[in-house]
Amino acid sequence: MTGLLPYGRQSVVEEDVAAVAEVLRGDWLTTGPQVTAFEEDLAGWTGGAGCAVVSNGTAALHTAYAAAGVGPGDEVVVPPMTFAATASTAVALGATVVFADVEEETFTLDPAAAAAAVTPRTRVVSAVDYAGHPADYDALRAALGRDVLLLADAAHSIGAAYHDRPVGSLADLTTFSFFPTKNLTTAEGGAVAAGDPALLARARRFRNHGLVREPAALRAPDEGGWHQEVHEFGLNYRLPDVLCALGRSQLRRLGDFLAARARLVARYDEALADLPGVLRPARRSWARPAWHLYPVRILDGRRREVYDRMRAAGIGVQVNYLPVHWHPAFADLGYRRGSCPVAEAFYAQQLSLPLYPDLTDADQDRVVDALAAALRGTPVRTAA
Question: For the chain, which domains are there?
Fold first, then answer.
């Protein structure tokens, strides 16, 4: 049989290679002009919200929480249907995570559950655009009021829209990931977007050790031209020029990537419409998802069986995600199963089918055939 058909992968062309090579031949490998240019290019997709690029999606979350002033004594509300970093980066800053359940169908943060989780200690509520479908940001704003910062974990949803407004413009802070399986890649990378210039400035300082260089902000402005100061601690989360060049090249094709994903989703929707034992992903009328994942639900307690059968046939299905509060690190802190029943029930059924721009129709048909065979309990055909 052929190798494993992955559930996601990067799409790299010669233009991307050439963009990287040009930087490698130049004077700047990091902290140079490609960084600013990439941030400006990204702002074209965020409704003009300013961006600070960072070394990965986890760094983006850590940086955003730091920019929001999250620290010991604060609470951060997080849905459990996400990668652990949405919660763990808040814990790393000393905050307490409070998990709030997700909505049926989209499995994004439930505004009512989020509002019920808010206390006087809540600093940030983090919504996650699961699978590339935006959360209901207007409903979240209405439920939370204006005293709590709203963060959009948009690792799955760059290029998506909510009521025709772009992701990046919907929350006080937005984080992106550019991991190879995401909707565009810088190999490793991420970004923080913010409409508030003060939040953006704090994010940019945190990703660069907290260094202050602006003469008007220095406490010892007459020290000399070399002088720089640390006023608040930060980390080295810089994204180098060479990877920003790759990101700029990729970003020029983001519209094509999104269109390819939407076409493949439509083919999956049609092919699976009458297949018993599986539910297709839903979407709201106001959403234009970015479709990072195609998450189906396998019914009748058969998810593990179907997963194993498809993997044995060379189909790289995946499960996204183990509810965050089920991870041992959170269980050891006292978080218990049963607290977020919608997310937990979804996890028991969830299976991500392969989805990426270069997935061919023939490979997609192979996925559909393998899923149908696995559900029927008949032998799954492997590729020659």
Answer: 14-251 (3.40.640.10), 254-376 (3.90.1150.10)
- List the catalytic residue out of 133, 182, 204, 303: 182
Tokens of 150: 């709203």
Q: Is 188 a catalytic residue?
A: no
pTM: 0.97
Please state, rounded to an integer, the average pLDDT across all residues of the chain: 96
Read off the DSSP letter of residue 123.
E
Single-letter amino acid code for the residue at 258:
L
Alpha-helical (H) ranges within the chain are 14-24, 33-43, 57-67, 85-92, 111-117, 137-144, 197-206, 241-251, 254-271, 303-312, 328-331, 341-347, 361-376
Segment 208-234, tens digit of pLDDT? 999 999 999 999 999 999 999 999 999
DSSP string spanning 283-331? Answer: --TTEE---S-EEEEE-TT-HHHHHHHHHHTTB--B-----GGGSHHHH
Q: What is the pLDDT of residues 318-363, one digit of tens each?
A: 999 999 999 999 999 999 999 999 999 999 999 999 999 999 999 9
Q: At what angle do helices 254-271 and 361-376 cross, to 10 degrees?
A: 30
